[in-house]
Amino acid sequence: MKWLAVAALLAACGDNLAPSGSFELVGHADLGARGMSSALAVVGDTVYVGSRNDSQGVAIVDVSDPAHPMMVGEIGAPEEAQPTLSSRELRAVPDLNLLVVMNQSCTPALDGCAAADEPGPENLSIYDITERDQPVLMSVVTDFEIPFHPLEMFLFRDPLMANRVLLYVTTPPGPPSFAVVDLSTPIDPDILTTWDPVSDGGLDGGGGPDNLLRSVGASDDGRVGYFSHQLAGLVLVDLTTVIDTPNEPAIEMITPPSQALDWAPPGIGPHSAVQAPGRPLLVVTEEIYPMPFGDGCPWGHLRTVDITDPTRPTTVGEYQLPEQDPSGCASVPPLTAYTAHDATVTEDLALVSWYAGGLEAIDISDPTHPFRLAEFRPDPLPQVTAEDPALSGSPIEMWSYPVIQNGLIYVVDVRNGLYILRYHGRWAEQVQDRMFLEGNSNLGAFIDRG
Fold it and tell me: CA-to-CA distance for 177 and 171, rounded, in angstroms?
């Protein structure tokens, strides 16, 4: 096997120690060098990888031999690869043979998609994956109270009712910009409720294109939501009634609007928030695109947020890449982003996809002083069918929430495909001992409970 030791000696923000860990490359699937891949769902020996454009569908990858993953099929037209739609987000529930694909609109400028006066209907497509390599479409969710624009979703598996599966979905711009979808009967999904943190919760989002609820995370019991509003800030939201009285849910703010954690400007505000298991601690990322699509360098980075007092989330630490230094901004190629994106978090370790920065392993054991343990920047493919029109300045674009399964880490680079890694170093046992963990669902906690 090829070993990829961490070679960079540049320290994280405020830290003078060289990285002490490493990532081992176990396997790589280039997905036919198609480029423009998106999120993944890991289901035992099968991985599903979505697409950020409309020219390709959901790749199906056999990972029964992690050292030699192989693409064995695709969910294509007419179910996927529809004009103006990308299969941007995926979630799965393996023992229920359930795959969820979020199809959202894509554009020529950002994604290389077809232009259309009337884009296709954005939706959640629900598949039966009893036969892993032959998914069967069961239902499609489009009938929201507003024109449905799904952006992010968190999958909740009820530990007390094993067949109960909920999706917490952001649907900006709204209002409403949040929806709860019940997938307990996947052939007939039910929209339990919709809500908006601005019009219903009292947040002041201001205006402009970034005035939106970006993403939602949740506690393992599904009762507390971590809502990332790009301009209004990070707030905690009470979702208890969604669990206990779904017929009469009454969502309420835990964090008063005046105490929302907001650092914009500078920056753009929170992108996604993931809780460290068993700790009153969130790992919060910020995503900043290069000009002309965003403000560019200095890039969005990672913050550790104390939620001991849920009414007042507080930033206690920050982690940045060396490329964050404003003195080096001029040397970054155009259409390149060294910005944080999504995290999967153990008790003391954050695994974060970081666009051109690759995959970062960050020690959060002391949240006031997060620092780099390891970094993986893959050798890029010489060429791909579809380059990213918005971010073609770098041949590395690590993007997805990492997924841990049986001690291995699965992560997708938009350009270069699926990577399977093993982490070595401090807190490695927290990865090696995990049957399953991902930052955008509570399935790891559900599986841990047995």
Answer: 4
Give me the pLDDT at residue 148, please.
64
What type of residue is 329?
A: C
pLDDT, one tens digit per residue, over 164-182 is 999 999 999 888 999 999 9
The alpha carbons of the chain give a radius of gyration, in whole angstroms, of 20
Q: Comparing C-alpha atoms, which of 189, 273, 164 is closest to residue 227?
A: 273
- In this predicted structure, what is the pLDDT of residue 147? 64
Alpha-helical runs (H) found in 211-301: 240-244
Distance between start and end Cα atoms, the chain? 33
Q: How many CB atoms lie within 10 A of CB 332?
A: 18
Cα–Cα distance list, 124 to 47, 153, 178, 181 (Å): 19, 10, 14, 10
Chain segment 200-241, per-residue pLDDT in tens: 999 987 888 888 999 999 999 999 999 999 999 999 999 999
Cα separation, 211 vs 60, in Å, equals 36
- Burial of 301 by CB count in 10 Å (0-12 exposed, 13-18 middle, 19+ buried)? buried
Largest CA distance in the chain: 55
Q: Which two tokens stand for residue 433?
A: 């001992």
Output the pTM of the full model: 0.95
Q: How far apart, in whole angstroms, are the C-alpha atoms of residue 314 and residue 192?
A: 31
